[in-house]
Every structure is written in structure tokens, then in C-alpha cells.
Specification:
Elements (H helix, E strand, L loop, with lengths): L1 H46 L1 H6 L3 E2 L6 E2 L2 H32 L2 H16 L2 H19 L8 H25 L3 H9 L4 H12 L1 H17 L2 H7 L15 H8 L5 H37 L1
Antiparallel strand pairs: 1-2
Amino acid sequence: MKAKSSNQALEKVIHGIFLILGLISVGCVLLISVYLIVAGLPAIREIGLFEFLLGTRWASTAAEPSYGILPFILTSVYGTAGAILLGVPIGFLSAVYIAKLASPRARAVIEPAIGLLSGIPSVVYGLVGMMALVPAIRKVFDVPDGASLLAAIIVLAVIILPSIIKVSVTALRAVPKEYEDASLALGATPVETYFRVSVPAAKSGIAAAVVLGVGRAIGEAMAVMMVAGNVANMPSLFESVRFLTTAVASEMSYSSGLQRQALFSIALVLFLFIMLINATLNLFLKKGGKEGND
């Protein structure tokens, strides 16, 4: 009886600790949200919402400054979409191979390599891209400067690969073996079983991997700054561009007054942008789960 009561007391203490930690996490998100809103709204009010969001010229240090961030928004959208289009298929197929098709010897080599990729700092990806990828793009496509949206897309695709692969592999390995055995017993080939049974069963985990990849691609700054050229142009595949993240990182150190407030407004737009994408993806996940249950 005494042991039972002590166990219950311990469970209550642990439950309280977890509750406090969860509330701290939520509180941090709320504090960041409030701070960005308070710091970012004054500039939007002074510049004008439509001029700020839809303006095509950013010249924050000019004699007559202009604060239009449409080029940054479109560049971030195109860059993230391109990285996802490149990285998700490669990461997904790699995960299926590692989890289901690779031999133990191949798996013992590939998995540590994927873990090593995830541990490399983003600035190293940017340095390699600047030294190898940018000159290669300039030479292959015969353009004046290889620092471009294309280089940023390729670097971002490589950066998000480890997250997508590791989470997808974990999700695929969590699928009960009975599902696959039943499919094989009905005459399906192993490859058919993996793609028609295992993958749909691990759908939520694979989708979570994609969400992580999207978040990593949108939030990346240093690597993108090193290979994209960091010029406030409208997005074009072979021209220098600037992302929302690099706009804040490149000017915050010397900004002041309205320019500094505008940079906080960009951070607010980026924050809302990420929240909108995550909410949309989660909505699709819930819809897919309900349809699967039905």
C-alpha cells in the first residue's frame, strides 16, 4: 500500500514537471510572437501594408528609402518549393531503400553518413556551395555569376535531406511487420509491399519529415546568403536573389530607425509565413488521417 501511494506521488510529480516544461515551451512561443508583433507593426503602419508586402523595390539605405519586400517573399517561396521538389523525392526514396531494401552492410555505411550530414553546420554547406557549386553553375549554364536562386535551391535541397531521410526511416521501421507479411502472403512482390503497404502505413511520419524539411528550408540563412548573391532582385533562376532570412541577417548589424523596424517586420512576415505553412500541412495530415480511417 505504501509503495503504491509513493508511486502515485512520483507520477504526480513527474506529470507536474512535464506540464511545467510544456507550458514553458508554449510561453516562449507566445513571447516571441508578441515581441515580433510589437517590434514589427510600427514599420508596417508607417510604410503601409500593401506598399510593404507588394512593393518590388528594397532600398533601405538610399536617400529616399523604399521598403518593398515582394522580391524576398517570392524568392523564399520559389526557393523553398524548389528545394522540396528536389529534396523530398530523393529523401523519400533513400529512406525506403535504407529501411527496407538495403543490406545490413550497406545500411551500416549509409546511416552514419546521413547522421554526419545532419551534423554539418549550414555555413559549411554554404562554403562548399560557394567554392564548388557556384563556379560550376557559371560554367555549365554560361551565366555571368553562378550565385543565384538555382544554387540556393540545390544547397537547400542537400541541407534538408538528412532530416527527411532520418524521420522517414524511423516511420517506415515502425510499421508492424504483420502488414508486410500479409501483403507478401497475398502474392505481392516485396517492392509492391513496401510502396503500397508500408509507405501508406507510415504516411503521417513521412509527412512530418516533409514538414521538418520545409521548416529547415524556410529558416536557413547563412548557407543561402553565401550562394544566392544576396541582391534584392525579383526571383529568377540564374540571377542573384535575397531571401527573407538573408534580408534580416545581412542588414540587422548596421540598421537603425525605420530600417531596423522594417527588418523586424520582415521577421514577423517570415514567422507568420512558417506558421501558415505548418498549419496548412497539419490540416492536410488530419484530413488524410480521417479519410484513411473512413
